[in-house]
């Protein structure tokens, strides 16, 4: 059963190897960078950062590595090359490096936090920042980058930081995966592209944000890879996938979709497509989080079920045998119940409620209802849900719940 639960992501410390500098690193083939001189360490450091950022934007690997210390070993330079190459695999984006708080300073040496800001065009509403801890050193009168390591980052915010990750981008979908087999990657990306295009078409009249032209899908294929990249995979086995918020400070910038390894098997292709459609609805309507859970989950189930258009999900995915739909009204506080039977029943009732509204008031109505419930903050003020339903449909919460249970019984 799919769910948009906000799970706690473990921060992952991805150590980046030492970066070298103005010299001619042994074996790297990097050209000599212009010597950065000066007594003001912070001014020199920002100049080096500007050179590095310009090299990234220009796709100039040698220029990037040439800012590194000539004493960097071959392994460290290889890691830096791999990181540079992963950034180059990103779709159109902005890239900036800015010096931040000084951690340590001494004559000819500076260690400072550096903000790396990247905005994926058509995906992120604003630049997303991750923090690096960078050491700069002065050697023979020239400043260089002696070491560069990430602070506690999340792969969701900066997928290019994940060692060994492969990034592929097509038709609005950025896939981040450790899948080595090209045909398997194509199958995953095909499912994601089809699902993304289907949901964008369905919700085109309700969603006009320019940063929703694209989406990021994180698809690590093994439990070990999930753990290494800071994700607790076990909770995902209950849902198949989740929508994960990415933030800069307290600002929620966008949402990524994290897929469970179990959904990536060849025999899970149909479920993968439906699950991705569900999560993509959440991404497209993510600004409506103050609606009740039954509404946000119900609308995702509705638009991924095929009732509003597109491929039709198997009815056993929507109304599984053995579910419990006891009670009246719409599931609220206990929506994510402890037992599978109750949780699946809550999803079925939520889907049926939105399906009833879609069939009687038009296929765009479920999305519009969620927007209205968000505006009145119905999640925190449940009585406002009653008022909205009465005003729009002449139905009470209990009435809509009864209609939903009738539909569940009819198709179950």
UniProtKB/TrEMBL annotation:
Keywords: Signal. The keyword Signal applies. Residues 1-19 form the signal peptide. It comes from the Bacteria. This is Peptidase MA-like domain-containing protein. The lineage of its organism: Bacteria, Bacillati, Actinomycetota, Actinomycetes, Propionibacteriales.
